[in-house]
Predict the structure.
Amino acid sequence: MRNSHGARRRSIRASGPFLALLMMAAVSSGCMVGPDFATPEPTVTDTWLEWRNKSLKTHGENPWDWWRVFHDPVLDRLIETAYQQNLTLLSAGTKVLQARAELGVAVGEFFPQAQTASSAVSYNRASNATPASQGGNSGTLGNFWADRWFVAASWEIDLWGKFRRGIEAADAAYLGSIASYDDVLVTLLSDVASTYVGIRTLERQISIAQANVVRQREAVRIARDRYEGGATSMLDVHQAQNVLASTEATIPRLTLQLKRGENALRVLLGMAPEPLGFLLARGAGKIPAASGKVAIGIPADLLRRRPDIRAAELRAAAQSAQIGVAQAELYPAVSITGLLGGQASNVGVHNLAQMLHPVGRVFSIGPSFQWNLLNYGQITNNVRLQDATLQQLLVDYQNKVLTAQQEVENGIATYTLSASEAFYLRRSVTEAKGALDIATLEYQQGTRDFTTVLTAEQNLYASENNLAIATGNTASGLVSLYRALGGGWQIRDGKPFITAATAIQMRNRTNWGNLLLTTEQPVDPETPAGLPAAQDVNSNIRPPEW
């Protein structure tokens, strides 16, 4: 009889893990209230307005390392430095870790939500002044010792998918944080390139101003010589000096803008104020220019490539799951509560060690039921709140797609029209140089008045300066076009979201396990980057992370 009972107990213990797995499988396959997310159909045109432009092509993949089309090693180095050192990007990387930790919290909610272990020993005396002492037993106890230990757990069963929806929301939020990181990276790379183009453009403008100062000083000398020779009045000298001083005044103004651009570049590079000569000296004044056609693809490519569109979609997906979390509160919650422990005292024939023996064992297990029947108005309106928030995010997603198409069209227009402007301004510069040479010669010969020389000087300076601006606008337009197309975030492929130094600093404070330098991204290579794969849908139960 004893052997049979022991075998049955061993059988029950052996079947425990199986029963737990069976319960988990049953729960995970249960119903999940709330909507399953579906990406809204955005308004996307079939092709770009300027697709016939000879400098563009709609076939071929847009290069992810688009800055290399400028063939500028200085820009390549700046891009790499900014990726390694920029603090805004590092902050975005830590937000990925935050979202990853929040996902771990959500996963833990699926398992027993409350687990406690306690133990205590106490020296006691029962009161003789209570109704319980009237039987006469309390006074005979005297002083005694008591000890106990308990292990308790409470598990709310996920009948309605509240916790699974929570994991689903945390999954989408985690992927959304990666998409937001990518968006920060795209913005960073384009800001570095735009700032660099601006610096080179200003250097070119300063060089043009300095060259025109040399020409205009020569005009002042010629006017003064003719005045001293009695051929003209002092008016020509004053006019020449006026034009010269006006041109000289542009140099400090342009230099101020250059200093501000360099200061902005230092922040993008994560650098304290220090000379940038070691980075910028090579190629000073040479405005980056790209050759060949620009691959712009088709508008539908933006849905796959632009990280801000992915982030907007994932925010909506996370919010969709929150509707299920709120809606589950409308239904009864069933929990299983269990307690196992031991309790003993030294009263009578007993002793404290019996706490660990079968005679002192205590346990309890059973279900509990809770239903918020009187809070339906509050819960229902919370569901409505979550649904309205989802609708707002769906509209935001559609608006983000429209805005992305607008930004691409603006980039195309800026790039193509600035290039056309620069083409005509090159001709204008050539003609202005010829006009100044002839006007200066005729003035020296006395056949042309000095006003013609001044006008020619001003026209040449304006044409050269406008050409530099148009050339810079062409490069900046190309940068903004690549930014609008959403390329560049692929540079972080296979790399962690934070620097090694930051990981060491965080690890010294907290146990992060293997999460700090991970490049894990739970997506299928065949799906759009940053979006969940098909097999991830409703398959979000996983072991807790310790």
Observations:
- The longest strand covers residues 143-156.
- The radius of gyration is 38 Å.
- Residues 160 and 512 are 32 Å apart (CA to CA).
